[in-house]
Write a structure and sequence with these properties.
single chain, Methionyl-tRNA Fmet Formyltransferase, Chain A, domain 2, 8 helices, seven-stranded mixed sheet, alpha/beta, four-stranded antiparallel sheet, Rossmann fold
Length: 309
């Protein structure tokens, strides 16, 4: 089986490793190298770095419609093209190239949570289950015929990063099973329901905590985004990122108000309904710290508020 793999972030690395162990990977396609980290040094994508470790050919077109890139793919003549978090729509010229089509791995139970942030969306909505889907790509955005779906439970305290790592590993296994099923003729495509919901990329303003929401919704929002990119709010006029939190009793007060200081744990903050204990915080220019270290270092007082001033 002659395979071309397309992927970019860390989520796609286990898929690449699983495919390289079972099939002939002709080339790996990833986004161009870009400045990353605090120093903004140009660095390879996680998929490119792993592909080079495996001794695989890497292609990094600026645009997937570039004629030179299309010519290179045509010369490679893959049986199948497999995609995991490549983050670009694939044009018809590529979709029609391999005899078995282009297959995408998506971390949700499509048609639920199509689009950019399916993992975070599941956690933000308090779902107890998500899944993995492979589908035959078409010109739409996560709308192609379904091939395999695997249901995956979500832990009650699991963060977005933890869930992504777990889905990434299992996703590699599902992608291999999909390729084998297509090759053997034991797997057939099922039309995807047209109805579904879409998630869009997170903007800076989307990371702000809405303290007027019920405590369970605020807690789920924080764990969905912990610790990257992380939910944010303000404290004494300065930005602060928030990590893990837990539900706890608290006096009724204006949302965002510190209503208790749990010794050894952290500040208890009122929400629109109930309260949460902040267990991890990251002030601007500082590293992550536990909630009690934040209380002591900032001399937090009862009645002060997050998200104001």
């Amino acid at each position: 089986m002659r395979v071309v793999f397309m992927g970019t972030p860390r989520f796609a690395v286990p898929s690449l490793e699983a495919l390289a162990a079972d099939f002939e990977v002709l080339a790996v396609v990833s986004q161009p190298d870009r400045p990353r980290g605090r120093g903004l040094k140009v660095a390879p994508t996680p998929v490119k770095a792993r592909a080079l470790d495996l001794g695989l050919k890497v292609l990094q077109p600026a645009r997937v419609r570039d004629p030179g890139f299309l010519e290179e793919l045509t010369r490679l003549s893959p049986d199948i093209i497999l995609v995991a978090a490549y983050s670009r729509l694939i044009p018809p010229a590529i979709l029609e190239l391999p005899r078995l089509g282009c297959i995408n791995l998506h971390p949700s139970l499509l048609p639920r949570y199509r689009g950019a942030i399916p993992i975070q969306a599941a956690l933000m909505n308090g779902d107890s289950e998500t899944g993995l889907t492979t589908f035959l790509m078409d010109e739409g955005y996560d709308t192609g015929d379904l091939l395999m779906q695997v249901r995956v439970p979500i832990g009650p305290e699991e963060t977005g990063q933890q869930l992504a790592e777990r889905l990434a590993v299992q996703g590699g296994e599902v992608l291999v099973q999909t390729v084998r099923g297509l090759h053997d003729g034991t797997l057939s495509a099922t039309p995807q329901p047209p109805e579904g919901d879409y998630t869009r990329p997170l903007r800076k303003e989307d990371l702000l905590v809405d303290w007027s929401l019920p405590a369970s919704r605020v807690r789920d929002f924080l764990r969905a985004l912990a610790h990257d990119p992380a939910a944010s709010t303000s404290w004494r006029g300065e930005p602060v990122k928030l990590g893990r939190a837990e539900l706890c009793p608290g006096a009724e007060a204006e949302p965002g108000t510190v209503v208790a200081l749990e010794r050894g744990l952290g500040p208890v903050v009122a929400t629109g309904q109930g309260a949460i204990l902040l267990k991890e915080l990251k002030p601007a220019g500082k590293g992550w710290m536990d909630g009690w270290a934040f209380v002591q270092g900032r001399r937090v007082q009862l009645g002060e508020s997050f998200g104001s001033g």
